[in-house]
Amino acid sequence: MDGYQTLIGRLRYKHLLMISTLGSRRNLHQTAAAMHMSQPAATRMLSEIEKVFGCQLFERTARGMHPTSLGEMLIDFADNALTRLDRCAEEVRRYQLGGRGQLTVGAIMGAAPDLVAQSIIELKRQRPLLQIRLMGETSDQLVELLEQDRVDIAIARYATSIQHNQFDFEPLGNETMITVVRRGHPLCSSELPPLEQLLETWPWILQPMATPARQALEKEFEMEGLVSPRDIIECGSIFAALQLVQQSDALLVMAETILRDHLQTGLIERLPLLLGRTLSPFGLLTRKDTLYGEPVTGFCEILRRNAADWR
Prior knowledge:
Residues 11-68 form the HTH lysR-type domain. By secondary structure, the chain is of the alpha/beta class. It has twelve helices and twelve strands. It has helices at 2-10, 13-25, 28-34, 39-53, 69-96, 112-126, 139-147, 195-201, 212-223, 238-246, 256-264, 296-310, and strands at 58-61, 64-67, 102-107, 131-136, 153-156, 167-173, 177-182, 203-206, 231-234, 251-255, 268-271, 282-287. Helix 3 crosses helix 4 (39-53) and helix 6 crosses helix 12 (296-310).
């Protein structure tokens, strides 16, 4: 405890800013310029920081400043601390202007059109002055944002099997994965060939390998004794994938909720393929050992209630 109190007493905001800036720029001269200080002053500050921690944090080389293993750990800490401080300052500013806080939600796009959108609209009716930011990404990206404290909560899936050590997970629902092609595609006017032939003959648009949806798809190919498609366009952007499928002969596998509007307007057509059956449920991901207050807890309650109706 004494060591902790000593560190708190000697570590300053500028120290954290120095560690974070030097960690990203890897150049002391550029860091000094970014912090509006002279290079000798920056050198003295770095020396002071290393004295506080009692070890070397950066190695000086001809190619710049390279963090030690402990330096890498402190860079992550400084980045996260500065992000939290920035968000706190923004919430205080909004409160002084008559606002009522900020909520940042990350969601996979399959849950966003229905469950998440409905829940956000309901929350805004209750708290009109609340600033809400919605970030739509894939599960692997959202887990990373949650780890970095750049989102308050995530509606996603575990991207790896060990992430249950970092986050709590509460299942909310699941997506129905469907396969679509452009309007007038040759496969729509004839009997569908076996899946093995489709994988060999036609191009496919698939999510990146790090995503749970892609991993579930590959698992199904494995269970059927099949190999991955020969011709793949790997695309992490929903918008880009929809443009690609409409302008090519590729098959696209994606959540039905995302494709619904395009199906109803006839821009794309659904194929009678059952894929994505092993995809695990998505749910509410939160950081372990974190005490959440309003508006996070209020939004989570709305999510749970709407998820029960949605199911």
